[in-house]
Amino acid sequence: MERIMDHLAHERSKAQFSVEEMKIIWAGSLHAFQVSDRIARLVASDPGFRKDNRAVLSRKELFKSALRKAAYVWKRINELALSEEEASWLRFYVDELAYAYIHWGMFVPAIKGSATEEQQQKWLPLANNMQIIGTYAQTELGHGSNVRGLETTATFDQETDEFIIHSPTLTSSKWWPGGLGKVATHAVVYARLITDGQDYGVHGFLVQIRSLDDHFPLPGVTVGDIGMKFGSGAFNSIDNGFLRFNHVRIPRNQMLMKVSRVTRQGKYVESNVPKQLLYGAMVYVRQIIVADASIALSRAVCIATRYSAVRRQFGPPHEDENGKGVETQVIDYKTQQSRLFPLLASAYAFRFVGEWLKWLYTDLIQKLEANDFSTLPEAHACTAGLKSLTTSAAADGIKECWKLCGGHGYLSSSGLPELYAAFVPACTYEGDNIVLLLQVSRFLMKTISQLQTGKKPIGTTAYMAHVEHLIQCRCTVQKAEDWLNPSVILEAFEARAIRLSVACAENLTKFATPLQGFSELSPDLVEAAVAHCQLIVVSKFIEKLQQNIEGNGVKQQLETLCNIYCLNLIHKHLGDFLSTGSISPKQASLASDQLRSRYSKLRSNVIALVDAFNYTDHFLGSVLGRYDGNVYPKLYEEAWKDPLNDSIVPDGYHEYIQPLLKQQLQNARL
Ligand SMILES: CCCCCCCC/C=C\CCCCCCC/C=C/C(=O)SCCNC(=O)CCNC(=O)[C@H](O)C(C)(C)COP(=O)(O)OP(=O)(O)OC[C@H]1O[C@@H](n2cnc3c(N)ncnc32)[C@H](O)[C@@H]1OP(=O)(O)O
Ligand SMILES: Cc1cc2nc3c(=O)[nH]c(=O)nc-3n(C[C@H](O)[C@H](O)[C@H](O)COP(=O)(O)OP(=O)(O)OC[C@H]3O[C@@H](n4cnc5c(N)ncnc54)[C@H](O)[C@@H]3O)c2cc1C
User: Fold this and answer.
1) Residue 256: which residues within 8 A CB-CB, separation 6 or more?
2) Where along the chain do its domains lie?
3) Which residue in 298, 316, 518, 554 has its CB near the most CB atoms, within 10 A?
4) Each residue of 73-86: pLDDT tens digit?
5) Measuring CA to CA, which residue among 185, 204, 198, 214 is closest to residue 275?
6) Which residue intervals define the domain Acyl-CoA oxidase C-terminal in the entry (predicted)?
């Protein structure tokens, strides 16, 4: 048997902590680690889940392959009698975007969040058993961010006890819903509710769009795919669709009636729950997307880190561990470290804030069940803000990782182009990132205005209670080591965040109306929201370190990562920190000194830190990120697999190359 050479073994031997213990920290618990590890291996070893040929498939082949895999996933879930937790891991590791993401991730949560108990009893078993396949049809051709501006109508017909769903204009066509184009049989459709001639705004309706017998669209329904999207593979395995209704009738009881309902007599009745619960599915998915951002970023970082340890360029002659003369590993260049290590730190930071957000969401759901709606505004602000912050940083980070791999990063076989193409729309779906930050700033301005009324800020805004101190405090750092003190870091971030918010609040008073002020100051408001969200990530990382963290050397590594995450943010947003007086220029320079020293401290551990993500080669899908580091022979092998190399002389030679060459030859002879 061929011995598998581990080109990264020397790197692994340098680690100063227990990778196995770190794997548990990354997974969240021993149980989560064990389940996810088992399912990851199950997926990786099943040829039915092969995905290395995706980049060369045509759109139709890719789509069909995604359908096949989704059906196979369902089959395996049932054959193996997987629990809900195991089934989620299976879908996750299969790593193929398909209609099932929208079905499980949005359609089912929308029903759970907005339907009455009775409606849930009818629809959830059908959805859970995949007897119907659902999509989430909110966005329209002319309206995405502005949900209140949706045009589709649902007009109540008292005579027949039905709603008539209609698309009155081209711009009211539903546009983008995943799984809609070719697969979904049902949709949660967001439409303006009209009864008794009055428009009550946007509400959710459960609408069947395709026949369960022959899959043809039902009468009055026009539906199709919106076309190819950015990048090969990636989102092109999903049929994002368009949908138009021509007076389609549905029974009255297919309005999702938890928040409000229409009676048999056509009377609109509000319940005692806030209308924002209609947007509950968005809060749910935004929270999941934060976890997804840490995964996408950590995948890219894992690839770039392993490859940076394998790749060698320039440098004074070195001897490797076998005494052979070699060039410098690119990971030892300080520029490479200053680009890569903050991304590694961010992956961990986002993991921990994602864990906390999951807790916040679970807590919200428990409170909502007890009719306590008090934490809904904060949950909305946190999910919106952190979704925005983490997806923007992860998308930029993946792109940086591809550049960190030089030319080979641009190859499909690096896995990075597809990862980027698949992830970058997260900056737009579930709310454009800027629009979401503006929601956070609205929440911040409200919180600041309530300080004057004596209302005590809670949760992630609790720091605002100390506004008087934070507005005038001075950072105490005198030497580089002082930047390792978590309370110093926290105060600098709190001071920056509150000073930016207070400046916005003061400036807003200078405008004739709040609307005008919000519009004029929106770039500043976005910066204040970013500062607040970064503070949340920093504080949750610091809180994580205060927990009981077991394992040889694990806590020390996390402390170094936390320092790098925070100090790099100070470095990147120096303008904010200096202009608000949160730190001085001298302290900024000390922060940079400390950051450099943290990179050196981290260096020998980075391969082990990416191993702790516990990603299989199948999941990573990257020749550059292979666990064994055996990059060059595998790149060569992959190149041979390209369809262009199926023949020695390419198709088209006889039509287009040979005549050209002959012509040139004849011309030369003349
Ligand atoms: C097991 C497998 C599961 C797989 C799961 C998959 C999970 C993901 C993982 C990987 C990803 C891969 C798959 C990707 C799938 C992508 C699917 C994408 C779907 C979509 O994009 S659906 C469409 C989403 N659309 C949006 O997000 C639109 C954005 N716009 C809005 O949210 C809103 O309109 C708004 C927030 C901009 C509101 O603007 P407006 O000023 O008009 O405000 P009002 O509507 O009047 O609201 C006022 C009031 O309400 C508060 N508010 C607003 N939104 C919410 C909310 N969601 N929750 C609670 N509260 C809310 C707002 O703050 C205001 O409060 P105050 O009056 O200020 O107190
Ligand atoms: C891959 C993908 C999958 C999707 N899946 C679904 C789905 O399953 N179901 C569904 O319903 N939808 C889906 N969507 C649609 C998605 O939710 C919307 O694209 C998103 O909400 C943004 O809306 P928009 O496209 O209208 O952007 P717009 O709002 O038109 O944004 C355009 C620009 O205007 C700016 N802008 C907009 N409003 C403001 C403002 N108030 N202040 C300042 N700037 C502003 C934005 O920042 C952006 O730069 C999907 C989208 C994508 C890309």
Assistant:
1) 110, 111, 114, 115, 116, 119, 188, 203, 204, 205, 206, 278
2) 119-271, 281-456+484-611
3) 298
4) 999 999 999 999 99
5) 204
6) 485-662
Give residue 322's pLDDT.
75
Residue among 192, 197, 198, 180 nearest 150 (CA): 192
Give the count of alpha carbons within 13 A of 363, CB side only: 13
Looking at domain 119-271, its CATH class is: mainly beta
pLDDT of 2 > 70? The answer is no
CATH number of 281-456+484-611: 1.20.140.10
178 is in an annotated binding site: yes
List strand residue ranges (DSSP E) for 178-309, in order: 186-195, 198-208, 221-225, 241-245, 248-251, 260-262, 268-270
Contacts 24+ apart (CB under 8 A), 258-266: 258/113, 258/114, 258/115, 258/116, 259/114, 259/203, 260/200, 260/203, 261/116, 262/156, 262/193, 262/195, 264/158, 264/161, 265/158, 266/156, 266/158, 266/195, 266/196
pTM, two decimal places: 0.97
* Residue 314: band (very low, low, confident or very high) from pLDDT cuts 50, 70, 90: very high
Does 267 or 6 have the greater pLDDT score?
Answer: 267
- Return d(Cα 573, Cα 493) in angstroms, integer: 11
Do 119-271 and 281-456+484-611 have matching folds? no
- Ligand 1, CB cutoff 6 Å, lining residues: 88, 91, 101-102, 104-106, 136, 138-139, 145, 147-148, 178, 276, 279, 282-283, 285, 288-289, 292, 376-377, 380, 429-431, 435, 439, 442
- Helices marked H in 28-157 — which ranges? 30-44, 59-79, 84-94, 99-102, 108-114, 117-128
* Amino acid letter for position 540: K
**Residues forming a β-bridge with 202:** 192
Let me know: does 246 contact 222? Beta carbons within 8 Å: yes
Q: Is the CB of 130 under 6 A from ligand 2?
A: no
* Tens-digit pLDDT profile for residues 162-182: 999 999 999 999 999 999 999
Q: Which of 430, 491, 527, 559 is catalytic?
A: 430
The C-alpha atoms of residue 498 and residue 576 are separated, in whole angstroms, by: 11
Query: Which atom of ligand 2 is the closest one to the Cα of 235?
Result: 1
Residue 158: CB atoms within 10 A of its CB come to: 15
